[in-house]
TrEMBL record:
Residues 22-296 form the GH18 domain. One of its GO terms (molecular function) is hydrolase activity. Pfam families: Glyco_hydro_18, Jacalin. This is Glycosyl hydrolase family 18 protein. Gene3D superfamilies: Glycosidases, Jacalin-like lectin domain.
Length: 447
């Protein structure tokens, strides 16, 4: 049996293929959450993508295998969920050759327990065949492992003996005659009927659902689970209420400590809810924080161009000493339906947030401000916004501790408006210690 490959560091995320956001879009729709993943290079900032949800189904030999749940469901663009799976695999691999793609099992009560008949003598054969079928499925679909969503009645539907037999068989199958390592991931909200020895010998990572409000690392460490397996489970959905746990603290990346425990891995639920812009932006930010990446470029103009250059209708701006972040939302009406192009937040979570909501027909016609040197870093220090209705918003950024300022201004040509921002962000050190992400270069696209 191979030694589990406990990641020394990883930034991971789930994706739920049954949901389409914004409503009415499909995978291939230009303004869908899935195309946002591609356009914003989110897969480049993700080590493991855990794809939800897979079902355990009968094979043609009287045993069981897995397949993407609701595989034949037709989405708004005419694609099936099975096609969504293939699109996701192709897009993720095209962007990040090293990304690990795992199949997350549905947590329906009998999803795993159905493998076990009433006759215990049949269990070794049943689990061995299931394990082989899972391995063959993953290899055939160019996937890298299996993830177990462990919660509710699912976590008590099999016994500890069955747990040990099943996952030992899967680990042995994964380690036999495969050209690349297959991961076994565990994503619990509770302890349930897990077997400690099997967990420590067979699993590679444990993604704690800390956002549940009732999941604690101590529950797992105290029963003997190897702490090095633990990953911080974060959640950034807009309907999340328990902000005292993962919602806020996960933004600090790998520095969060609970009972003197430092997490080396982090996994967030998920990349494509109705709050996908924030989720995907946080994924990029977490990756930069985890790996010490100094920053990245963004090009919202290219993304807006694919949608036909719709105008900005909402602009979120955050500024403190300098310009911390920008996030534009563009929209347009087609066949009587409003379409939303949700662009990601660029920059970090510092400063004071402001939201500019433009009225119908109002366009951004000019932005201007200053760049400068802030604690040794060249940054965008201040930004103001003018619109076709004669309104001026800002300035955002107080120019505190900024020297060597240089003014800049972008004005839209007659008949056009500013439809997107492009530039760079960087992770910069603070005088008080720590780091923050800010805008370090900025220009615009007209349309």
């Amino acid at each position: 049996m191979a030694t589990p490959l406990i990641p020394s560091k990883s930034v991971n995320a789930w994706i739920y293929l049954d949901e389409d956001e914004p409503k009415g879009t499909g995978y291939t729709t230009v303004n869908s959450s899935y195309q946002s993943l591609v356009n914003n290079n989110v897969y480049k900032n993700t080590d493991m993508v855990l794809i939800c949800f897979f079902a355990v189904i009968p094979d043609n030999q009287g045993y069981y295998t897995i397949d993407i749940g609701n595989a034949t469901t037709v989405h708004p663009d005419g694609s099936t969920t099975a096609q969504y799976l293939q699109y996701t695999i192709q897009d993720a691999r095209a962007q990040n050759a090293d990304v690990k793609l795992l199949a997350t099992l549905n947590y329906n009560t009998d999803n795993l327990s159905q493998i076990f008949s009433s006759n215990p003598d049949q269990w070794p054969t049943a689990t061995a065949n299931f394990a082989t079928n899972v391995k063959n499925y993953l290899v055939a679909n160019q996937m890298n492992g299996l993830d177990i969503d462990w919660e509710g009645s699912f976590a008590s539907a099999i016994t500890r003996q069955q747990f040990s037999m099943l996952f030992t068989a899967i680990r042995q199958a994964f380690d036999t005659n495969t050209s690349s390592y297959l991961y076994l991931s565990f994503s619990p909200a509770e302890v349930g009927n897990l077997d400690v020895a099997t967990m420590n010998s067979c699993f590679d990572i444990v993604n704690l659902q800390l956002y549940s409000g009732f999941t604690y690392v101590s529950s797992f460490v105290n029963i003997g689970i190897n702490p090095l397996l633990m990953a911080y489970g974060a959640k950034f959905e807009s309907n999340y209420q328990n902000a005292t746990n993962a919602y806020d603290q996960a933004q600090q990346g790998f520095k969060y400590q609970n009972q003197s425990y430092v997490y080396n891995n982090i996994t967030q639920w998920r990349l494509n809810s109705d709050n996908y812009e924030f989720e995907q932006g946080q994924q990029i930010l977490l990756y930069q924080l985890a790996y010490g990446v100094p920053g990245s470029s963004f090009n919202d103009g290219a993304i807006a161009g694919k949608a036909g250059n719709p105008p900005i209708t909402t602009l979120a701006v955050s500024g403190g000493d300098v310009l911390d972040s920008l996030q534009a939302t563009n929209s347009w009406v087609s066949n009587g339906t409003e379409n939303i192009l949700g662009l990601l937040q660029h920059g970090g979570n510092g400063g004071n947030g402001n939201t500019i909501q433009l009225s119908s027909g109002e366009l951004i016609t000019e932005v201007y401000g200053y760049t400068g040197i802030w604690f040794g870093w060249e940054v965008v220090a201040q930004l103001s916004v003018k619109t076709s209705a004669g309104h001026t918003y800002g300035p955002f950024g107080h120019l505190n501790n900024v020297s060597a300022t240089t003014s800049f201004s972008y004005t839209a040509p007659s008949g056009q408006s500013i439809i997107a921002f492009n530039g760079n962000t960087s992770q910069v050190p603070l005088a008080s210690g720590g780091t923050t992400m800010v805008i370090t270069a900025l220009n615009v696209s007209f349309g």
